[in-house]
């Protein structure tokens, strides 16, 4: 029994040991030391300097990492190196070998974008992370999940290059790049970025890696024939070395040229031959900025020693940023391997099938996804600075701007995404993004020049700017073309020509030789319209034997939208707009009905209605209490009209008893005062200055009346009139001011025109002549334009500089001097001044407020009067014995009766103590005339009512009114 128990115990121990062995043995790895060995492949170009440097950096990175983490790390990376031999196929073969035979869990490299593309594809298939310094934007971690870019994306430098171009105001660049994935990858980003600052890529020059020296020279000579002198070069040292040697040979590294190189070349300048560096003097470049640190300096010392031991035949011992990125990438991989806790590499083989390729037979890495997750987002301070991987992409920080001087480059500034260009990396909180060239250090440009190149030159073989000028038979004050009788040389004169000469000769910061070429046929006639002339600029070839395309067009060329599609205009140098010239209207003072014109019809009608209404209101208030308003019906109607219209001349003499009527009349008299004053002023104006009124006040009047209109021959105004829906059969064109005068004098019905439509400069000049300003006047502007400008080809670098010069000229007294020479001093024309004070008929809108006040006053008083009347006769309205018709008849009779004021009779006494007997006829319809009354009473009433002198001159008038009322009541 005991033996059986002992046997079971031994068997249990053996079983436990076997289970433990299943877990312990793999963890102990291949070396039996308890550490897991993780196989990692390295694919580099062993013959290339960048590959040599990176290989040493990767080895040192792992040694340094495990030396610092030997007590905490349970894994060790074992490197398996392969040489890509600078070939795409060799790089792909090396990757397959590492995955199939070694079963590596990650691959460092390759560094060339063309090689990395195939290796990344293999990594995606096998789910093995590929950590490469390939910078081509065409390779994206977003599209390749197992690609980790251990370098800055090539597109990240685009903004820094754009900032440099923007800082110096260059409007055109030529892009030169190698015909590889690396070269082509950044081109779309550069194009978009330059367009964002209105800089055009005038030409793209693509060079093959196998291009011969003769082909490079041929391409350079082609570039010399162009105006642009700013070149952006995007290529690696292999091709760049030969390219810049030929640039120096072609004398294109002289004064006036600008050469800008990208980071791939700038970062490797130390590895280029000194003779090549000598041919690049004055070049500007950008490269990723590597902050200085003691850790970096110590590493460089150790690296030089180690590199010399591994490469004794190499004389160059300078570190580059690609080596630092390789060091940091290896460090990141070691960190990720330690964090992910991966075990022995295993690949999940596919289901056995016949004829499997080597790539398909490899299978899928089981540890790859875990390692990728640890790699995609990691951050630490490495030798290259802050090494931050975000979604598999190294994040850019800042770029260093350098100038190639002497044996290498010299720092002139920095660029950061937040602050732009700066001299250093110490920023204040108040600093904003800047692209100011003053924030850069001193630059030595090609040709050892300190002067900033303007970025363009006249093409070789074309020493002068070809300037086209219009040929015309009139308006010589603006532009005129003649030929010297002896030399046949073109002589251009005029206001526009002098402005152009002033701009080009005195206000441009550089000299531009030019010559004037007339736009004419062999018969010395104009070769077409101004649109045809402007279009000649956009022609790349001379399509017509007799016509010639130009580098610019100068003259009285108006800036309009359809022309701007073919050319670029400078800023305008004249006032803008299109206006009409029309004759003065004939004198209207002999018109028999001119007295009706001061007021519009609506104002006449409204005034008449208010006269009648006010008369009616006053009659309603006075009819019951005032004998003067109690005549027979016919006379009462006459009284209504008489009283209201008599207020027009303030001739009303009827005594008003009711306070309501007095209130209404006070307001109405004020309205009449304003109306009569305005009428008098308007009529006076019409009788004195009405002759200066233009015959047409608006272009719509001409369209509706279908009148003939004139315009300047060859002008864009013809198209403008067509857009305004004018009948083209009513168009007439003219070439001189004399023709303008003749056509306007005849008029539209006699073979002339009703108006001339032209631009403001011409109209101002036309009306400046005394013989014309007395007969015609300007109406408008009726259309806005930008004025006269100089035309240049699309994207011409001259446009911004000439525009600035135009501003300087227009702001100086020199423009006034040129205007006085050609257009004369602007004098005042008395007739034109009079035309500005013509009188128009008054409308109802000007008096709405007055009529509203009068209406509110009258209606308010009328409502109050009716309320009192109804209140006094409420018994009649409330009676139940009568019908509504009877009640209305009774109310009408009551209103027609004289109001009983007997309650106040006892209070009124005659002025003397004697009583006065009043006959009963006092209640008749009309008051007695003084002739039929008692002579003494008549004399007394007359004296007091008319306000004449009496024995008691101090007796108030209102007492007289009370006495008369008492006599009437008795």
Automatic annotation (TrEMBL):
A GO MF label: ligand-gated monoatomic ion channel activity
Limits of the Ionotropic glutamate receptor C-terminal domain: 464-825
InterPro entries for the chain: ANF_lig-bd_rcpt (IPR001828), GABAb_receptor_plant_PBP1 (IPR044440), Glu/Gly-bd (IPR019594), Ionotropic_Glu_rcpt (IPR015683), Iontro_rcpt_C (IPR001320), Iontropic_Glu_rcpt_pln (IPR017103), Peripla_BP_I (IPR028082)
UniProt main location, coarse: membrane
SUPFAM superfamilies, per the entry: Periplasmic binding protein-like I (SSF53822), Periplasmic binding protein-like II (SSF53850)
Membrane topology reported for the UniProt record: Multi-pass membrane protein
Species assigned in the record: Rhododendron griersonianum
Function (record text): Glutamate-gated receptor that probably acts as non-selective cation channel. Glutamate-gated receptor that probably acts as a non-selective cation channel. May be involved in light-signal transduction and calcium homeostasis via the regulation of calcium influx into cells.
UniProt KW keywords: Disulfide bond, Glycoprotein, Ion channel, Ion transport, Ligand-gated ion channel, Membrane, Receptor, Signal, Transmembrane, Transmembrane helix, Transport
Subunit structure: May form heteromers.
Top-level taxonomic group: Eukaryota
Protein name (record): Glutamate receptor
Location of the protein in the cell: Membrane
Annotated S-S bridges: 773-829
Transmembrane spans: 7-25, 603-621, 663-683, 850-871
Highest classification ranks of the organism: Eukaryota, Viridiplantae, Streptophyta, Embryophyta, Tracheophyta
Compositionally biased region (Polar residues): 920-934, 948-957
Cellular component terms per the entry's GO annotation: membrane
Family membership noted in the UniProt record: Belongs to the glutamate-gated ion channel (TC 1.A.10.1) family.
Residue ranges of the region described as Disordered: 899-934, 946-970
């Amino acid at each position: 029994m005991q033996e059986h128990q002992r046997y079971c115990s031994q068997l249990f121990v053996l079983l436990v040991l076997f289970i433990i062995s299943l877990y312990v043995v793999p963890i102990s790895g291949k070396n039996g030391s308890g550490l897991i060995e993780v196989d990692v492949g390295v694919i580099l170009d062993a013959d290339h300097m960048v590959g040599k440097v990176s290989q040493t950096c990767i080895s040192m990175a792992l040694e340094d990492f495990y030396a610092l983490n030997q007590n905490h790390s349970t894994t060790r990376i074992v490197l398996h190196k392969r040489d890509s031999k600078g070939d795409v196929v060799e790089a792909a073969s090396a990757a397959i070998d590492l995955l199939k035979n070694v079963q590596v869990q990650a691959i460092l490299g390759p560094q060339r974008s063309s090689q990395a593309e195939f290796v990344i594809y293999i990594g995606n298939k096998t789910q093995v992370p590929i950590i490469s310094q390939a910078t081509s934007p065409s390779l994206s971690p977003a599209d390749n999940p197992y690609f980790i870019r251990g370098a800055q994306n090539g597109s990240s430098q685009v903004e820094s290059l754009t900032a440099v171009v923007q800082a110096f105001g260059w409007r055109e660049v030529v892009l030169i790049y190698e015909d590889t994935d690396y070269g082509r990858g950044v081109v779309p980003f550069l194009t978009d970025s330059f367009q964002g600052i209105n800089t055009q890529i005038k030409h793209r020059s693509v060079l093959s890696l196998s291009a011969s020296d003769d082909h490079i020279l041929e391409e350079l000579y082609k570039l010399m024939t162009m105006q642009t002198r700013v070149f952006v070069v995007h290529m690696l040292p292999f091709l760049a070395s030969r390219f810049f040697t030929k640039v120096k040979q072609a004398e294109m590294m002289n004064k006036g040229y600008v050469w800008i190189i990208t980071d791939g070349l700038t970062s490797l300048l130390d590895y280029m031959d000194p003779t090549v560096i000598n041919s690049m003097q004055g070049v500007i470049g950008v490269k990723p900025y590597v902050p200085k640190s003691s850790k970096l300096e110590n590493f460089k010392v150790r690296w030089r020693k180690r590199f010399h031991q591994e490469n004794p035949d190499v004389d160059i011992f300078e570190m580059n940023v690609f080596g630092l990125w390789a060091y940091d990438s290896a460090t990141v991989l070691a960190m990720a391997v330690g964090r992910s806790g991966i075990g022995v590499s295993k690949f999940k083989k596919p289901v056995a099938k016949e004829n499997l390729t080597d790539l398909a037979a490899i299978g899928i890495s089981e540890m790859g996804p875990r390692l990728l997750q640890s790699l995609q987002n990691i951050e630490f301070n490495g030798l290259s600075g802050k090494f931050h991987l975000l979604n598999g992409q190294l994040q850019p920080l800042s770029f260093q701007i350098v100038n190639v001087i002497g044996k290498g480059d010299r720092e002139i500034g920095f660029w950061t995404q937040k602050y732009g260009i700066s001299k250093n990396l110490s920023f204040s909180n108040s600093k904003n993004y800047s692209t100011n060239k003053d924030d850069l250090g001193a630059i030595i440009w090609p040709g050892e020049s300190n002067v900033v190149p303007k970025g363009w030159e006249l093409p070789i073989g074309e020493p002068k700017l070809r300037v086209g000028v219009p040929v015309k038979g009139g308006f010589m004050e603006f532009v005129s073309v003649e030929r010297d009788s002896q030399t046949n040389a073109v002589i251009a004169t005029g206001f526009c020509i002098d402005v152009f000469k002033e701009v080009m000769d005195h206000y441009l910061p550089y000299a531009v030789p030019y010559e004037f070429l007339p736009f004419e046929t062999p018969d010395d006639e104009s070769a077409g319209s101004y649109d045809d002339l402007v279009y000649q600029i956009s022609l790349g070839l001379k399509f017509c034997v007799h016509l010639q395309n130009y580098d610019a067009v100068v003259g009285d060329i108006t800036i309009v939208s359809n022309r701007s599609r073919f050319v670029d205009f400078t800023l305008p140098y004249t006032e803008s707009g299109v206006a009409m010239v029309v004759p003065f209207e004939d004198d209207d003072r002999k018109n028999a009905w001119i007295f009706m014109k001061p007021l519009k019809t609506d104002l006449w009608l409204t005034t008449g209605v208010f006269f009648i209404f006010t008369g009616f209101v006053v009659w309603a208030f006075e009819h019951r209490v005032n004998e003067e308003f109690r005549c027979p019906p016919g006379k009462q109607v006459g009284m209504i009209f008489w009283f209201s219209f008599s207020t027009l001349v303030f001739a009303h003499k009827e005594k008003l008893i009711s306070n309501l009527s007095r209130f209404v009349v006070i307001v109405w008299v004020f309205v009449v005062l304003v109306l009569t004053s305005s009428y008098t002023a308007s009529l006076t104006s019409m009788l004195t200055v009405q002759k200066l009124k233009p015959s047409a006040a608006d272009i719509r009047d001409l369209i509706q009346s279908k009148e003939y209109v004139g315009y300047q021959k060859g002008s864009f105004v013809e198209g403008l009139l067509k857009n305004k829906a004018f009948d083209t059969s009513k168009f007439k064109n003219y070439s001189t001011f004399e023709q303008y005068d003749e056509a306007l004098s005849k008029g539209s019905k006699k073979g002339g025109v009703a108006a001339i439509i032209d631009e403001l400069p011409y109209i101002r000049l036309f009306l400046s002549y005394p013989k014309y300003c007395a007969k015609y006047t300007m109406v408008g502007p009726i259309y806005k334009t930008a004025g006269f400008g100089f035309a240049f080809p699309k994207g011409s670098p001259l446009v911004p500089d000439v525009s600035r010069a135009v501003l300087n000229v227009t702001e100086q007294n020199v423009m006034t001097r040129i205007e006085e020479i050609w257009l004369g001093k602007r004098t005042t024309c008395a007739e034109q001044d009079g035309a500005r004070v013509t009188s128009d008929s008054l409308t109802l809108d000007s008096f709405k407020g007055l009529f509203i006040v009068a209406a509110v006053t009258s209606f308010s008083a009328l409502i109050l009067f009716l309320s009192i009347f109804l209140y006094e006769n409420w018994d009649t309205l409330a009676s139940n014995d009568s019908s509504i018709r009877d009640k209305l008849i009774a109310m009408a009779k009551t209103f027609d009766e004289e109001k009983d004021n007997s309650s106040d009779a006892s209070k009124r006494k005659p002025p003397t103590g004697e009583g006065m007997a009043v006959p009963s006829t006092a209640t008749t319809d009309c008051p007695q005339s003084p002739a039929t009354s008692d002579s003494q009473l008549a004399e007394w009433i007359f004296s007091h009512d008319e306000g004449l002198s009496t024995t008691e001159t101090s007796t108030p008038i209102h007492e007289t009114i009370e006495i008369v009322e008492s006599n009437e009541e008795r």
